[in-house]
Design goal:
Layout lengths: L1 E6 L4 H12 L4 E8 L3 H11 L3 E4 L2 H11 L5 E4 L3 H6 L5 E4 L7 H10 L2 E4 L2 H18 L3 E3 L2 H10 L7 E8 L17 H4 L9 H9 L1 H14 L6 E5 L5 E7 L4 E5 L4 H10 L31 H11 L3 H16 L6 H14 L8 H20 L2
Parallel strand pairs: 1-2, 1-5, 2-3, 3-4, 5-6, 6-7, 8-9
Antiparallel strand pairs: 8-10, 10-11
Helix pairs in contact: 1-11, 5-6, 6-10, 6-13, 10-12, 13-14, 13-15, 14-15
């Protein structure tokens, strides 16, 4: 039985991971769980899975939880450093399902501790991909991709030589507004953006999918996950979300991975890798699929994809600046305080102000992240 910790257990990926763990008939023992402030759901998870350690980022909610479980858990971490402390506990596998830059320090701590990682938080590699993968290599740590596109690439190139790969192609649904009248973009509200046509995800990643920023971030993380040249990564719009990626090889062969748009399939593959076991999820029925369509992304209407790819190529602290800008802008959009197009407009403005430090060291990244958040605040105040 392998010991597993799940950071972000009350979020979409965390809940799906726990569901898959329950189906795997005792292959995993959940020893660590973390949440931001949803202690009601966390309490249910603790009572079902009986972990040794729990981390809660919110101080007040954490103290409330501590009163309830004092003496029944080995350790309860509370506060801004709680999740990072939990990531420092040795386990067989740690699932990092935190949202945004919150996953960065726990990832570095997990690597330092010697924990293999299932990484659902693509922003970690956006912000510090070069440094993360270098540290993991030094420590001989395995980092598995826990999102559908990167996991499908992982499956296609698993036993292939790097020089055999001609190109990897990430598919994007296009989100809810891909065929929307561009003249109406400014009238889009948060409630509209949170209705994704194929995937059930958290609020932040759903908005990122609507702007195509998420796909740009996936391009950056694919670069570091698979050690690819930028010119070997492409994006294609595929509204049905059945084909999760394509990999072109130098011999003219293209491999595609198809499945229902269900994150539990991806999670199960990574948890049971290198084996495949009987699943409890719906399989693709080609007789039910009327069409599979593909088209080139419209970067003029959705410039967030271009911004992300540009930040990745520039490198250094620029991706961290873009990520921080996007996190703040999305948060403000979700409160209906800026318009949909202003998300990427604000991000582009901050990028233009930034002179990147090309040394992607942790202290430089943290400094750039902090700087960008201040810049976004000043820009939004003037809108």
């Amino acid at each position: 039985m392998k010991e597993i910790t799940i950071l972000g257990s009350t979020g979409s990926i965390g809940k799906n991971t726990l569901e898959v763990v329950s189906q795997l008939n005792g292959q995993f023992k959940v020893v660590g769980l973390s949440a931001q402030n949803n202690i009601e759901l966390l309490t249910e998870q603790v009572e079902k899975f009986h972990p040794k350690w729990v981390a809660i980022a919110d101080d007040a909610k954490g103290e409330q939880f501590r009163k309830q479980f004092k003496g029944s858990l080995e350790e309860i971490f509370i506060g801004s450093e709680a999740v990072t402390k939990l990531a420092g506990k040795k386990v067989d596998l740690i699932v990092i399902a935190l949202v945004g830059s919150a996953g960065m320090l726990p990832t570095f701590e997990a690597i330092k501790t010697g924990n293999d990682i299932a990484l659902a938080n693509k922003e970690v590699l956006v912000i510090a991909g070069k440094e993360v993968m270098a540290k993991a290599k030094e420590r001989n740590i395995k980092i598995f991709p826990l999102d559908s596109e990167h996991c499908s690439i992982f499956q296609s190139i698993d036993k292939e030589k790097k020089e055999a790969i001609h190109k990897v192609i990430l598919t994007a649904s296009g989100g809810p507004f891909y065929n929307y009248d561009e003249n109406k973009f400014s009238s889009i509200k948060a409630k509209d953006a949170l209705i994704h046509p194929t995937w059930d995800m958290g609020a932040k990643i759903t908005v990122d999918s609507a702007t195509l920023m998420n796909k740009g971030f996936e391009v950056i993380s694919a670069k570091w996950f698979f050690d690819l040249d930028w010119d070997k990564i492409d994006v294609i719009i595929h509204p049905q979300s059945v084909v999760h990626s394509l990999v072109e090889f130098v011999d003219g062969t293209t491999l595609a991975v198809l499945s229902e748009p269900d994150m539990r399939i991806t999670i199960k593959h990574i948890l049971t890798y290198p084996n495949r076991t009987q699943g409890q999820f719906k399989t693709i029925d080609l007789n039910e699929i009327s069409e599979l369509t593909f088209s080139k992304p419209d970067e003029k209407r959705f410039p967030a994809l271009r911004l992300a790819c540009s930040a990745g190529r520039i490198g250094g602290t620029m991706p961290a600046v873009l990520n921080a800008s996007n996190e703040v802008a999305v948060e403000v959009f979700l409160k209906d305080k800026i318009s949909f197009p202003q998300i990427w407009q604000v991000c582009e403005s901050v990028m233009k102000r930034h002179s990147p430090n090309l040394e992607q060291e942790l202290q430089n990244i943290l400094k750039a992240d902090h700087w960008a958040r201040i810049q976004v605040g000043s820009i939004i105040e003037k809108l």
